[in-house]
Amino acid sequence: MGKRYRIAVLGAGDMGRCHVQGWQLAGHEVVSITDTDKNRAFDLAKKAGVEQVYMDFTESVTRSDIDVVSIALPLVYHGPATILAAQHGKHVFCEKPLASSWEEVERMQKAVKEAGVKFGLGFQRNFAHGVELVQKWAEEGVFGSPMVFSSDLLQEVRPKIAMHDKDGNQGPVVDTCCHFFLMWQTIFRSKPKKVYARGGILGKGRPEIAHFKELAVDTAIITIEYESGDIGTMTISWGLAKDTQLQANPDRIFGPKGGAVGYFNTWGRDSGTEVKLYIGDQLEVVPLEKRELHKVEFEAFIEALQTNAPEPYGFELGMEMLKLSYAVLESIETGQVVTV
Ligand SMILES: NC(=O)c1ccc[n+]([C@@H]2O[C@H](COP(=O)([O-])OP(=O)(O)OC[C@H]3O[C@@H](n4cnc5c(N)ncnc54)[C@H](O)[C@@H]3O)[C@@H](O)[C@H]2O)c1
Known about the structure:
- The chain is built from 10 helices and 15 strands.
- The chain is of the alpha/beta class.
- It has 2 domains: 6-117, NAD(P)-binding Rossmann-like Domain (Rossmann fold, 3-Layer(aba) Sandwich); 128-289 and 323-339, Dihydrodipicolinate Reductase, domain 2 (2-Layer Sandwich), CATH 3.30.360.10.
- The strands form 2 sheets. Strands 14-13-12-11-7-10-9-8-15 form a 9-stranded mixed sheet. A 6-stranded parallel sheet has the order 3-2-1-4-5-6, sandwiched between helices.
- Helix 1 packs across helix 9.
- It is globular, with a radius of gyration of 20 Å.
- The N and C termini lie far apart (42 Å).
- Nicotinamide-adenine-dinucleotide is lined by residues 10-16, 34-37, 40, 57, 72-75, 77, 95-96, 122, 124-125, 160, 175.
């Protein structure tokens, strides 16, 4: 192993925990954890053996002995934390989605460019074995052409209620669909052309999110046509009843020759550990390899940093995903097909 990088992780929530573990598994040193919730930060630091805790990211980011700032904060802080880190000469690894607005993207890009640092975006799910396998089958023509992809995600109103704030995390179309959009375009090896979507707010009237000035769309049915002629469809909702037992369907892709079914970009007890491959009238069950996805994405980022190669996912991809998510929201609002 080469240089052991020194990392400041911002955020000690769900993704902060994944970042700390991923960096440590990849053999780097997490020097500090920052969270405005002091108990959370201390708990995680204790579990992970990290010595320094901060509550204000200005303190952790501006330390001279940090190489990489790893951002696992709510969307509204992606911009400010990236800009501050770049201005202090740190490389930045930031969770998806990229930013809250196009103006913010511009400011982030400018800061990163001026500082000459690397900027990587967290799309760990696209490193899953299932995505790699299905992409290979699609490329080999196993399914034939065109292909149709359907993905599904169903959840109750999020306990993380800020996710429903239109001015905050902007709801699932911006926050979460990007994982699926990236998976589809990876497997189709093509870019989106047109979008049609319908949607709304199922969680309207729920007391836990009633205080937000404006709620984000929490439910959508999305259809995207790709330049290749392939089609992706998605049903997503974060508006279901509390403790619902309704479950999302697995991903499914098919073409005139065959298809595949499974949770391609996750692995585990709930999402399964295999993919069903259908060719003609045959069915084969293909096991999926378990991968530590955050470790893998951080290794890929560090390799890009060391070889000065482009990072696997950065501004360009982040902007593509934002553009597509905003096209979906525009289609929902106008009822029109939107050209991407
Ligand atoms: N890649 C993925 O699969 C994936 C999955 C979930 C979330 N995310 C993304 O990760 C980011 C974080 O999401 P999460 O699920 O971990 O959220 P979370 O609510 O679990 O954690 C966020 C943490 O940030 C802290 N925080 C908020 N403002 C802060 C500030 N100004 N300074 C320091 N700490 C602050 C909160 O106290 C909280 O502990 C979001 O951008 C989200 O979209 C990515």
